[in-house]
Design a protein that fits this description.
Order of helices and strands: HHEHEHEHEHEEEEEHHHEEHHEH
Radius of gyration: 21 Å
Strand order of the largest sheet: 1-9-8-5-4-2-3
Number of strands: 12
Helix content: 25-40%
Number of domains: 2
CATH topology of the largest domain: Aspartate Aminotransferase, domain 2
Number of helices: 12
CATH superfamily of the largest domain: Type I PLP-dependent aspartate aminotransferase-like (Major domain)
Strand content: 5-15%
CATH class of the largest domain: Alpha Beta
Distance between the termini: 24 Å
Structural class: alpha/beta
Length: 360
């Protein structure tokens, strides 16, 4: 069976060296030296500042909302993983869904203008599949309407826009380091803050509300990354350029082979590919089902990612807009094809051949 993804594996020798260091120090958590080192190395690699590492990508979103004081309502996309919306609800913030751009699959900036009310406090766009949102447009809206701007950048590791990190946009950008992501720490996440003072507030929030001098200054939670998770991340980071390069090669091979047969996501020319996902959109829901069946028959697993549109799901069907035709349409026809470092060109060509046969 060819799965839709496989986690990248760090060098075990490197992992063991870090684990030996952890055993010797017996410092397993509470902002240990490996978490500090990973923070420094990621800031350097990604070209960012004010990075906070946390236990997972969902907590990254929740911490960002808390640190920035988001409340009331936040406008977001229904075409995303459920954590984008559920993290808002969990924090008592009402997610208000707005429709997407039919070509980029990202939240449409002009559409959200119809959704802004006196209760709107934030915009939470998603860089879907690692393709940048129209960040310039969102920045203008957030400034004009005095709204917080938090990007869910879970898919955007290593993506640059106009020569600088995509993570540098907004009041905050969040990352997921889940095992299915390009770069991972098995479980983990991060938040990149624009303002250093907000970073300091978030550092206290993830450590039970303790300040740097040990005083309890507010209500917090435990969202810290452990040393063991940081060890996996440090080991994988050494090889990340090769992992990304190979994934981009696979992405480009798919696009060459399937050009003219399926719809691809359109992305800004000013940004680079990072090989995070290979989404295709079929001509109809029925054609998508036919392709799925054909791929399953040859032991290839594709994934309807993201489907259904979140406004059609039970937890969220009573919030925001019921009728979001673009998101509902793309969600019914989208399919993510297998993409991981070890996937061979031969297997990619076999997948493409069978997919084109299924389309007819």
């Amino acid at each position: 069976m060819i799965p839709v993804t496989k986690p990248g594996l760090p060098d075990l020798t490197k992992v063991k060296k870090y684990l030996d260091d952890i055993y010797e120090r017996r410092w397993f958590t509470n902002n240990g030296p490996l978490v500090q080192l990973l923070t420094e190395r990621l800031e350097e690699y990604l070209g960012i500042e004010n990075l906070l590492l946390v236990a997972n990508g969902t907590l990254a979103l929740q911490v960002a909302y808390r640190a920035l004081g988001v409340e009331g309502e936040a406008i977001t996309t229904p075409f995303t993983f459920v954590a984008t919306a559920s993290s808002l609800s969990w924090e008592g913030i009402k997610p208000v869904f707005s429709d997407i751009d039919p070509e980029s699959f990202n939240l449409c900036p002009t559409k959200i203008l119809e959704k802004i009310t006196k209760n709107t406090n934030a915009i939470v766009p998603v860089h879907v599949y690692g393709a940048p949102c129209n960040v310039e447009h969102f920045e203008r809206i957030a400034e004009q309407k005095n709204l917080k701007l938090i990007y869910d950048a879970s898919h955007a590791f290593g993506v640059n826009h106009h020569g600088s990190s995509l993570l540098s946009y907004g009041d905050a950008s969040t990352l997921s380091f889940h095992a299915t992501k390009i770069f991972h720490t098995v479980e983990g996440g991060g938040v990149v803050f624009r303002d250093k003072e907000v970073l300091r507030r978030a550092q206290s929030l993830i450590n039970f509300g303790f300040s740097s001098d040990g005083e309890i200054t507010g209500v917090g939670i435990n969202a810290k990354m452990s040393e063991i998770h940081a060890a996996f991340g440090l080991s994988l980071l050494d090889d990340i350029d090769g992992l990304i390069a190979r994934r981009v090669e696979i992405q480009e091979l798919y696009q060459t082979e399937l050009n003219g047969f399926v719809q691809f996501q359109q992305r800004a020319q000013e940004s680079n590919l990072n090989g995070s996902y290979l989404p295709i959109v079929l001509a109809s829901k029925e054609q998508r089902k036919t392709v799925e069946l054909r791929l399953n028959f040859i032991d290839v697993k594709a994934r309807r990612y993201f489907s259904p549109s979140l406004n059609m799901t039970r937890p969220f069907c009573d919030v925001g807009e019921k009728d979001l035709p673009r998101s509902e349409d793309i969600s019914s026809r989208v399919l993510c094809l297998p993409l991981y470092y070890e996937l061979s060109d031969k297997d990619v060509l076999r997948i493409c051949e069978n997919l084109k046969r299924a389309i007819g």
